[in-house]
Q: What sequence folds into this?
């Protein structure tokens, strides 16, 4: 008996030792394991489907859901609800119209310029059903940028929402010269050369077009082009394959969302977060989504209560806007349990949860064109991802030391990059492999190659340069530090400084211009600022500059501040010097050169006075 009791005591002591070892040394073990098993399960299902008779696609999943839950609401927008069957049938009708009335064929690309509305989804699905790839166009871009986007993706046609037809002013003749057919989602057009869709859908069938048209030959076949700003000037068309769509569609499920959730999507559908994760995730779950035409901080919680929202998508700035709204007794009266997004700063994160209740916030990191996704499934405040040895085994990424002055990674004597230490800020690189392929950009091999780094740690390896600085702590949590290069983020959009500089350079009194982003207290991202020199014999004209930026640049791309200089400083490699300009910001106490501020009321760039400066840093002035 005594030996048995001793053995039992030893066993219990061992169990408790293992328990306390796990509890204090590996506190996230079980949550990590559960999340990884779910991710592996989802990936294994995709692998099995790849070997079935029909290649898996998000559209195929939607058609299945429309047959399985035909009467369940799929999209709700401005009080109007469309079921899975209604969206399926409406997209079928649109597909029949385009097949019968347009010259489109399987494999063609069609550009889509539409605001958030149910017909965005229906037209998108219709195009996929007839075998076309779709290029989502940013609704804020105009003139040359818009024309560039249409051309670079090789679009054979352009479909425009009824509220955006005026965006074609100035480029319609170019479209006609290029034989790009223009359709509008309305039943009437004053321009006889613009074809209409809605007057034709009632006389065609609501049954499916042949399934072979939408069938995918490979998961790596392009199906979408989503534009992202970069360092090369105009927006770049990131190639989105069936594989990327399927991976993104699993995001909500991985974070714990279910078919019973109602998902609120206030982000623009032309971005990958709303379309691939939001719409795709809703389809994967068989859930319902509420589509907001344009985000409104004053209507947000009323919408959540009205539609019984349980999950919403965000960007950091969105949550800050909500926290800046006047407090009410109904702040915690809602059914929201989860928020999924990125760019949320720690102070806003804490304030948001304190004020609006115990909402689980799940940050993730991943660029539209990137081959890596980091997910903070633990929900630790201030981190964008969670890593461990299993994740690193499956998805190879590294943080390497970066020299901010030379604007390049630090190399050793053999010419290889050096890994950043624990807690040290480094440049995030993601390895290109069969498991994590990189598909690059449409229309420019040079842009794709520029995104890659080769022979990083050993001769012949290839990594994607994310252009983002990160740090990983001892527990494996990854924090976003900053964005490198000529792109900064403002109002939830990426701003390409070279594109803005090129447009500003069209003003007759500007000789040289250097565009960059500066931190502004109380705001996410960076606000636009332009350092410029004036041509000899000319003078700075704030009103003329104001009129130019208002007509040629989207709201997020318009410089808030102007800094007049006698000369633009260059680096040793003859690049425009940005580091010192970024560091000095718009601080009147350290800048002796003239500073100007964008003023919407006076419709002018006016001198930045100390009063204006104080109103900006204290948050009294809206930007």
A:
């Amino acid at each position: 008996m005594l030996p048995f009791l001793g053995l039992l005591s030893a066993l219990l002591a061992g169990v408790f030792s293992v328990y306390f070892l796990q509890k204090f040394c590996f506190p996230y073990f079980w949550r990590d394991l559960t999340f990884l098993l779910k991710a592996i399960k989802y990936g294994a299902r995709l692998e099995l489907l790849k070997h079935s008779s029909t290649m898996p696609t998000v559209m195929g999943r939607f058609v299945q859901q429309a047959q399985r839950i035909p009467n369940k609401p799929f999209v709700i927008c401005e009080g109007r609800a469309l079921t899975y069957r209604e969206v399926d049938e409406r997209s079928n009708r649109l597909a029949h119209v385009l097949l019968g009335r347009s010259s489109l064929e399987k494999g063609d690309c069609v550009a889509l310029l539409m605001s958030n509305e149910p017909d965005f989804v229906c037209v998108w699905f219709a195009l996929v059903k007839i075998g076309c790839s779709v290029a989502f166009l940013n609704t804020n871009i105009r003139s040359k940028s818009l024309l560039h986007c249409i051309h670079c993706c090789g679009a054979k046609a352009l479909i425009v929402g009824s509220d955006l037809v005026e965006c074609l002013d100035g480029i319609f003749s170019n479209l006609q010269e290029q034989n790009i057919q223009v359709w509008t989602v309305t039943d009437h057009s004053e321009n006889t050369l613009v074809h209409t869709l809605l007057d034709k859908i009632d006389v065609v069938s609501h049954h499916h077009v042949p399934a072979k048209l939408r069938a995918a030959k490979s998961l790596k076949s392009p199906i979408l082009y989503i534009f992202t700003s970069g360092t090369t000037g105009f927006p770049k068309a990131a190639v989105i394959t069936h594989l990327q769509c399927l991976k993104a569609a699993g995001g909500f499920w991985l974070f714990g969302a279910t078919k019973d959730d109602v998902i609120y999507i206030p982000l623009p559908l032309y971005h990958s977060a709303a379309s691939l994760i939001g719409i795709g995730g809703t389809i994967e779950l068989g859930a319902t989504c509420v589509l907001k035409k344009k985000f409104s901080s004053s209507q947000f919680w009323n919408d959540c209560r009205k539609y019984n929202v349980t999950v919403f998508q965000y960007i950091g700035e969105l949550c800050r806007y909500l926290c800046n709204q006047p407090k009410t007794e109904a702040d915690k009266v809602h059914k929201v349990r989860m928020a999924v997004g990125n760019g949320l700063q720690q102070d806003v994160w804490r304030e948001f949860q304190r004020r609006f209740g115990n909402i689980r916030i799940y940050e993730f990191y991943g660029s539209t064109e990137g081959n890596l996704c980091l997910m903070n499934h633990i929900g630790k405040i201030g981190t964008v991802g969670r890593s461990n040895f299993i994740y690193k085994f499956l998805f190879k990424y590294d943080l390497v030391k970066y020299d901010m002055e030379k604007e390049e990674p630090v190399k050793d004597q053999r010419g290889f990059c050096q890994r950043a230490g624990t807690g040290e800020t480094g440049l995030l690189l993601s390895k290109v492999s069969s498991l994590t392929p990189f598909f690059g950009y449409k229309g420019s091999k040079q842009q794709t190659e520029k995104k890659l780094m080769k022979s990083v740690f050993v001769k012949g390896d290839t990594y994607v340069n994310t252009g983002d600085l990160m740090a990983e702590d001892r527990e494996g949590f990854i924090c976003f530090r900053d964005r490198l290069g000529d792109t900064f983020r403002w109002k939830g959009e990426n701003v390409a400084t070279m594109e803005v500089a090129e447009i500003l350079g069209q003003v007759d009194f500007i000789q040289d211009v250097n565009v960059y982003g500066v931190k502004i207290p109380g705001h996410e991202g960076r606000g636009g600022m332009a350092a410029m020199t004036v041509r000899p014999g000319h003078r700075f004209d704030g009103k003329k500059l104001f009129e130019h930026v208002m007509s040629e640049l989207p709201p997020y791309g318009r410089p808030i501040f102007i800094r007049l200089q006698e000369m633009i400083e260059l680096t040793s490699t003859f690049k425009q010097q940005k580091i010192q300009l970024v560091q000095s910001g718009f601080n009147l106490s350290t800048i002796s050169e003239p500073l100007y501020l964008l003023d919407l009321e006076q419709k002018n760039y006016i001198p930045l006075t100390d009063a204006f400066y104080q109103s900006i840093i204290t948050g009294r002035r809206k930007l």
User: Anything to note?
Assistant: The first helix runs from residue 2 to 25.
